[in-house]
UniProtKB/TrEMBL annotation:
Residues 51-190 form the Phospholipid/glycerol acyltransferase domain. This is 1-acyl-sn-glycerol-3-phosphate acyltransferase. One of its GO terms (molecular function) is 1-acylglycerol-3-phosphate O-acyltransferase activity. Pathway: Lipid metabolism. It holds the Pfam family Acyltransferase. GO terms for biological process: phosphatidic acid biosynthetic process. It comes from Vicingus serpentipes. InterPro entries: Plipid/glycerol_acylTrfase. Keywords: Acyltransferase, Transferase.
Amino acid sequence: MLEKNVFGQYIFLKKAIMRMASPFTYMRFGVINKNEITGAELYNELPSKNVLFVSNHQTYFADVAYMIHAMGNAKTGKPNQITFWDFFLRPYTNFYYVAAAETMDSGIIPKLFKLTGSISIKRTWREAGENIQREVDKNDTESIEKALKSGWVITFPQGTTKPYVPGRKGTAHIIKNYKPIVVPVVVDGFRRAFDKKGLLIKKKGSTLKLTIKKPLDINYDDSVEDILEQVMDAIEQSPKFQGTV
């Protein structure tokens, strides 16, 4: 009951929030919209820690919640599905996700989501809608390292919901320095189905796609630039994919 994660947050509280959210995620993903998930069997083949999921990003919250729900279903023996009771009764909690601190502090709902495994970091290039330049906070990278040593981490190399934006080198530095298993994830359909935050439904009956690919064959001795290029190709966000959808 009083077990905590590596950041001192109570696991029972994380489970409680996930259970409270599960009726809403199930309705939004499994009933109001259609889902198309492929490759979720991989979740059951991965080690319990030092796994980094890299993904494109279409809304602030909806695609993350979808990944978590699909992850939970796979871990209960229902891969490639969005079901309710399997996720509700046995929510999978050994994961974290990287998010901008200003996003996670922007309201009551984001602050609740923060308790489900957010690694809140300070963006080095943008804040409050303005372009900025600042050094990477050492505490942020240490938090990601700590999370990887404990479980799975989801990150978004582009740091934005805009498509085909170049990836940030920070992701490649994490890969090079901490040598995790890197699993590419591609999402689609969320921009059509939801508003930018992913809280309001924009179009019912949309097909929400989630593709979990095999781990990348990473040479950790490669340059940061080469690793980032490999990641961006894998999540289908490099320039050569622009205009293909």
